[in-house]
Amino acid sequence: MAALLSLEDAQSRVLDLVDPRPVITLPVDRCIGRYLAEDLRANRTQPPADLSAMDGYALNGDGPWQLVGESRAGHPFAEPVGAGECVRISTGASMPEGADRVLIQENAEVEGGLVKCTHDHPDRGKHVRRRGFDFAKGDLVLKAGVRIGPAQLALAIGSGHAKLPVMQPLRVGVLDSGDELSANPEDCGPDQIPASNGAMISAMLAELGCEIVRIGPVGDDPDALAEALATADGLDMLVTSGGASVGDHDLMRPALENWGAHIDFWKVAIKPGKPLMVARREKTVIFGLPGNPVSSFVTCLLFVMPYARAAMGAAAPMPFRAVAKLGCDLAPTGSRREFLRGYWDGTTVVTSDSQDSSALATLAASNCLIDRPAESTALATGSRVECILL
Ligand SMILES: Nc1nc2c(c(=O)[nH]1)N[C@H]1C(S)=C(S)[C@@H](COP(=O)(O)OP(=O)(O)OC[C@H]3O[C@@H](n4cnc5c(N)ncnc54)[C@H](O)[C@@H]3O)O[C@H]1N2
Ligand code: MOO
Predict the structure, then answer these.
(1) Which of 5, 267, 271, 297 to mutate for ligand 2's pocket (most ligand atoms within 8 Å of CB)?
(2) If you measure from the C-alpha of residue 81 to the centroid of ligand 2, how many angstroms do you get, rounded to a whole number?
(3) Do 28 and 17 belong together in one domain?
(4) For this UniProt entry, what's an example GO CC term (predicted)?
């Protein structure tokens, strides 16, 4: 038997299949979860003027100070403030010309239009946010490839952008296959199980902004599979689940080949997820995921999501990793690299109950995968392990 591909080799072959998507422009509020396609420069300067960071009095010179007016956010005090003068100022309001520090109102005493400092006399620049300290017009505020989350969205808007360049979403077909699958979880016969993989994979990819076309469930029958695959014609990507292994009724490989797909690789030295298949037909990149639900989840996380992220412009397409301290002992591993379902409580990580690749309850109760290299020795409580956070 040919040696199985290593995780790294298989992942790099998957990334080699990436053709970057065309760039489109979308309103900012539709860009959440997508990746910025081009570097973004500020269209404006923030803060646009020197602003007060506190409620109090904007001062010129040593006190006491004559109160000569007010500067509110959006309504600046238009006149210069002379030596020995001050204005009432609110948080976010412009510093008037001549004033160079702010006395917070808790430290001020006001009597007959005269303001006195009771304690903590402010130094020059105290509680003043300088014009442009956050960013100036023309500054590079976000780099191409960054994921647009809530903070990046706020920065894009704050720097004067109503639209952003992102990559056209991938159109992805997601196909469940297996004679035992029921499309309706509330109407499932004694020899059936509900088809849950398609919904799970679709949810994982929809979170990245992919457009999903659900196909199936389709039975273990060459004609039915051929008919289902025909509906995926022209899609950017196809993800199948089930029928990827070596049994008499594992028909995905021949069905894909009859459809005209060329297999890039089949089988990776990982557990779960060994029978992963990657293929291509014209512009469609195809992932044949193993049917066991945890195997589907893990291969989607390790291969399909990185591919989709990279194709949609992500600078860092791989899953997020962290090092954690073990709260339990771990057995040695065999010839495959293992991804154990685990729970990290912020201090230590422990393995979840069942490591069976069909165990949905364990998967749903886990918040990380512990990454165990192949052929590693047993590990004792307190050792450090790498985890992928879910
Ligand atoms: N003789 C061997 N048998 C198996 C091998 C092997 O190397 N030699 N590999 C095993 C491994 S590892 C895996 S993983 C599975 C993968 O098999 P398939 O991809 O062919 O998956 P199926 O047989 O179709 O299904 C496996 C399991 O998962 C359930 N399933 C399938 N689709 C769905 C779905 N859409 N939603 C929920 N659950 C699904 C299915 O009912 C089966 O219980 O093969 C091993 N066998
Ligand atoms: O690799 Mo399979 O995915 O162990 O169950």
Answers:
(1) 271
(2) 74
(3) no
(4) cytosol
Residue 353's pLDDT is 84
- What averages of pLDDT result for each successive group of 10 residues across the chain (390 residues)? 88 96 96 96 98 98 95 96 98 98 97 95 96 98 98 98 97 97 96 97 96 96 97 98 86 96 97 97 97 98 98 96 97 97 97 93 97 97 97
Last residue in a domain, options 152, 167, 182: 167
Q: Residue 284 C-alpha to ligand 1 middle, in angstroms?
A: 24
Residue 364 domain flag = yes
| 46 Cβ below 6 A of ligand 2 | no
Instruction: For residues 196 and 256, state if they share a domain.
Output: yes
Residue with the two structure tokens 């706020």: 154
Which amino acid type is present at position 97?
E
Identity at 129, one-letter amino acid code: R
Q: How many separate domains does the chain show?
A: 4
Closest CA to 276 of 239, 312, 305: 239
> Is 93 inside a domain boundary?
yes
Does any ligand 1 atom lie closer than 6 A to the CB of residue 289?
A: no
199 token code pair: 């919904």
pTM of the full structure: 0.93
Write the ipTM.
0.98
Instruction: Specify whether 346 is located in the same domain as 229.
Output: no
Whether 27 and 163 share a structural domain:
yes
Is the CB of residue 352 less than 8 Å from the CB of residue 341?
yes
Angle between helices 252-259 and 222-230 (to 10 degrees): 50
- Does residue 147 sit in the same domain as residue 37? yes
